[in-house]
Each structure stands twice: as C-alpha cells, then as structure tokens.
Amino acid sequence: MKRYLNDVSHKFLAVIIIFILSMSFISCGSIDDVKSFTGKLDSSVSGENSLAASSKDGLAVHYIDVGQADSILITQGNSSMLIDGGNNDDYKLVREYIEKQGIKKLDYIVGTHAHEDHIGGLDYIINSFNVGKIYFPKQTASTKTYKDFVNSVKNKNMKFTLPVAGQSFKLGEAECTILAPNSGNYDDANEYSIVIKITYKNNSFLFTGDASSISEKEMLSKGYDLKSDVLKVGHHGSRSSTTTEFLKTVNPKYAVVSCGKDNDYGHPTETVINRLKKASIPVYRTDESGTIVAKSNGTDIIFNVQPGSYKPGTKKKS
Length: 318
Known about the structure:
By secondary structure, the chain is of the alpha/beta class. It has eleven helices and 15 strands.
C-alpha cells in the first residue's frame, strides 16, 4: 500500500512539473510578442505571421508623443526617415526614441516648415546621428530655433534639399512622393509645409505638417493622387486644415492627430473632429494615447493602441 501511494505521488508530481514547464514555454514564446502589439487590426489581418511580417519587414510609422508638436519616425527595412523633431525641449525624448529603435543613421530628415514645434529638436538630432538628406522648404525665419537648425546643417557640411512637388524618392521599398508646397510665396508660414505621401505596396500614409486650406486646394487643383489609408491630420487638428473636400479626396481609413493634452489652442477642434466623425474615420490621438505606432505589411495596417475619442480638445486652464 505504501509503495502504491509513493507511485501515485511521483506521478502526480511529474504532471505538475510538466504543467509548469509548459506554461513557461508559452510565456517566453511568441504569445508575449503578439500581446505586446495588440490593437486595431485592419480588415483581414490575423494571426502571428501577419504581425511578424509587419513588424520585421514592413513599414512602421511612429507618431512620437511630443505634446503640442510633431515628430514622426518612419522605417522600412534598414531605411529610416524623421519628419520633424518636436519642440526645442523635446530633443532628448526624440533622440532616445530613435536610439531605442536601433537606428544609427537617418537616411532622410524632413523639416516640414520653420515653426519651433516642428524643427525645435532637429538641430540636436542632426548633430547626434549620421544623416543622408535633409529636406526643408525655401523659407526663412528670424528665430533662434531656425538659426540653430541652419547652423547644425552647416556644421555637418550639408545643404538643404528643396522639396519639388511631384518628385519621388525611395525609403527602402517604400515610395515617397512630395505633394507640397506648390508655391514659394505664402503669407502664412504653415502653407510652406512639406507634404509627403508614402506608399508601401498596397498601403499608403499621408503626412501634411501644418498645411492649411490654401495648400490643400493647390494639391487638389494639381490632381495629385491624395488617396491614403492613414492621414496625419494637418496642423494638429486646427480648423484651418482638413477641409471637407480634402478629407473626401484623401478618403482615409484612419486619421492620426498629434497634439498635446489641454493645449493652448483647443486642438483638435470641434470642426475637424466632427468632419472625421461624420465620415466614420477612427481617430488616433497622441493627447489621449501617447505615442502611436502604425505598422504595415503592405496589405494590412495595425496600431499599437485603440482609437481615441471624438471629443474636441480642451484648452489649458490659465
């Protein structure tokens, strides 16, 4: 009888050990990888294989949370591009974020226009990384931020590459097409914003800087192919951008707003939010979700967070 009980005990202990080992393999395997990037899945994407493809080999767009500013890191394969660098105080945040992605060289840097909330951190980024080309419009400013930006380029014995609407360049396997500015003489500095559409296989992303209605009308009149899956909403959701006609032509599946919580301007405005809501476009917001990452395998797009609300922004209390 005693021997029988010992045999039973040993068998029971063996079952417990096998169960513990099985759970360990599960927790250390690919399931954690999938859980670490759950979120909104576009149409037919499913399973670990699609996720792995978009993570390793596809296009990744990081809308970095820099508050009331813009900074977007885009990678495809071993190639990378940074569109804007946030405010002056965001330099360290942006640099560390780029470094965490294992990036040592930025093939392209795009300063969309001369405002501090877009080029503020770029001088530091240019000084910190190997850089290929630097795109910037034919625009000047008298601010220290602008002068620091220009000096960082000169210190590397580089020159700005002027954007030419209609021209394209490659980012790995992705094609980047410049759509604006379409003039060299604007009253509003925001209208100089470089607008770029990135196409990766069957997916496309549109980055609009602070381009407002005048620039949007110019792009529409030129007949450019504006249709995109993901729209980076212009000017942080200001009512001066994302006109009804422009939004209808872009016809995005998703929209991303880069803005700060309780910012001074009430971005995103009720006007723009209502347009997006009326068109049933899910909105991802850095003021609600922090940094937003969209990944594409060329067919499907996934996000690291759930869509945000359709509530307009609230102004910071004085």
